[in-house]
Write a structure and sequence with these properties.
This protein has 286 residues and is an alpha/beta fold. The chain has two domains: 86 residues, Leucine Dehydrogenase, chain A, domain 1 (Rossmann fold, 3-Layer(aba) Sandwich); 124 residues, NAD(P)-binding Rossmann-like Domain (Rossmann fold, 3-Layer(aba) Sandwich). Helix content is 41%, strand content 15%. Strands 1-11-8-7-5-6 form a six-stranded parallel sheet. The chain has a three-stranded parallel sheet with strand order 3-2-4, sandwiched between helices. A two-stranded antiparallel sheet has the order 9-10. Helix 1 packs parallel to helix 10 and helix 6 crosses helix 10. Bound molecules: NADPH dihydro-nicotinamide-adenine-dinucleotide phosphate. NADPH dihydro-nicotinamide-adenine-dinucleotide phosphate binds next to helix 10.
């Protein structure tokens, strides 16, 4: 039976470290601040933004929430982002995605100054991840890497399989695993004989968006299984992309859903905000 990689416990521990870092930065005259822009009234986005605010408050990061109506125009949003870019008291800027119809999330994200782009979605930061020379890593893959680290299993030399190739999760995840000298295979909806590939994975990351998609017969005995998926099922429960029971019976380590990658994603945003404050506070070169 697999050991559970508890993201909640690890996130709480990391939050304590971040709290200390925030206090130290404040002592040096830098008060880390994150601005979060929410456009429209999507209920899930509202929850995410509220959680981000609460997380910031818990560790002493100043949080500014900017809530705009769904019919906000591109020009108005551009103006707000530009003024936040120019505001030296703001270290991190995040636009909650998805944006309402009429606003292009990818385009809007590019307006955020790279040194304040704590989601690391801008082309500049994506490019830096490609080269392995980066200040910010997208929060979900960064959280997955911390959970793999917690397992104590070294990535170097391992067969790592990522299911999913989104810009937010799958692709940067593959880059980070490669950076750690893993041998990485990326699978997606057009992959042929997926199970043959996943069964070779020492480390398997599932970021698909389909509840229970990965079953125990698709994984190798002793694999480390990182389940990124968050799927709201008909019974109202949240389930991951992996069928927990059959995968846990074969894996050496596995992340639960909820309580695995989710809390780690949240804490990585705080870490990126601290990095942004350190860089902009002149404490380290970008
Ligand atoms: P996307 O929908 O952007 O990407 C899903 C990926 O899965 C695509 O690359 C797709 O392939 C691939 N896929 C879909 N069906 C199959 C299949 N049958 N076989 C193999 N691959 C398949 O999702 P995200 O990457 O944004 O998110 C993935 C999951 O992670 C979701 O459940 C999401 O809610 C969750 N998530 C969780 C976070 C957390 O904090 N825990 C944060 C972000 C996301 P193709 O490219 O060919 O279409």
């Amino acid at each position: 039976m697999a050991v559970i990689l508890d993201g909640k416990v690890l996130a709480a521990k990391l939050k304590e470290d971040i709290k200390e870092q925030v206090a130290a930065l404040k002592g040096e005259g830098v008060a880390p601040k994150l601005a979060v822009i929410l456009v429209g009234d999507d209920p899930a986005s509202q929850v995410y933004v509220r959680n981000k605010k609460r997380d910031c408050e818990e560790v002493g990061i100043i949080s500014q929430s900017i809530t705009l109506p769904a019919d906000t125009g591109r020009e108005e949003l551009t103006g707000i982002i530009k003024s936040l870019n120019a505001d030296s008291s703001v270290h991190g800027i995040l636009v909650q995605l998805p944006l309402p119809d009429g606003l292009d999330g990818t385009e809007i994200t590019q307006l955020i100054a790279p040194e304040k782009d704590v989601d690391a979605f801008s082309y500049y930061n994506v490019g830096r991840i490609m080269t392995g020379d980066y200040s910010f890593v997208p929060c979900t893959p960064a959280g997955c890497m911390e959970l793999i680290k917690l397992s104590g299993v070294a990535v170097e030399g391992k067969n790592c399989v990522v299911i999913g190739r989104s810009n937010i999760v799958g692709k940067p995840m593959a880059m980070l695993l490669m950076q750690e000298n893993g041998t990485v295979t990326v699978c997606h909806s057009r992959t042929v004989n997926l199970a043959d590939i996943t069964r070779r994975a020492d480390i398997l990351v599932a970021a698909i968006g389909r509840a229970g998609f990965v079953t125990g017969d698709m994984i190798k005995e002793g694999a480390v299984v990182i389940d990124v998926g968050i799927n709201r099922c008909e019974d109202g429960k949240l389930r991951g992309d992996c069928d927990f029971d059959s995968c846990a019976a074969k894996a050496s380590f596995i992340t639960p859903v909820p309580g695995g990658v989710g809390p780690m994603t949240r804490v990585m945003l705080l870490k990126n905000t601290i990095n942004a404050a350190i860089i902009q506070g002149g404490k380290e070169n970008a």
